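USER:
I would value a second opinion on how I read folds in token form. Give me a protein, with the fold worked out from its sequence. Write it directly below this note and I will take it from there.

ASSISTANT:
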Amino acid sequence: MKTAVTMLDGAAAGEIELADEVFGLEPRADILQRVVRWQLAKRQAGTHKTLTRGETSYSTKKIVRQKGSGGARHGDRGVTQFRHGGNAKGPVPRSHAHDLQKKVRALGLRHALSAKAKAGELIVLDSATLESGKTKDLKAAMEKLGLGKTLVIDGAVVDAGFARAARNIQGLDVLPSQGANVYDILRRDRLVLTKAAVAALEERLK
């Protein structure tokens, strides 16, 4: 499939041929969901913790005598029934990460790229370079291209001036090609790829 290539200033720069096996698939929501779930689970901290009965600082002295009080036969105040007592089956620190096959991860990235291309939310730039490195210059260029919440993916190395200018623009993310991932692609309204990024992604995913 062919798509137009544009310059950062909005001028046309010809066309580029996009590989159908990377950008022309019919997006599958189930695969995208599996990959996004895997990504988000992997980055969860998993540091939640509550005190168990053995970790509370209450006295273990028996509250009342075993028989004759008319009440329950409690041993101490650290049990789960009492206020500030220990938790019976509370959360403990653990990893939420789970395995997902490399083939499924790669397939998910193909489907995410195809979803953006099919929805008309994919823009190909000739290059993402900004000599001035000024935020106002990049913001003006984005407004000219009609870009709002956008993910820009460059080649192996992101231009330093472009990255510096993008740091202060809310809703704009910049990644090198090896950092391309399903979650970041789907969470932004537009996906902007440079020609170098297209070449790198096609080499990686074909």
Summary: The chain is about 35% helix and 15% strand. Residues 164 and 171 are 15 Å apart (CA to CA). The beta strands are 2-6, 12-17, 122-125, 150-153, 172-175, 190-194. Residues 50-90 form one domain.
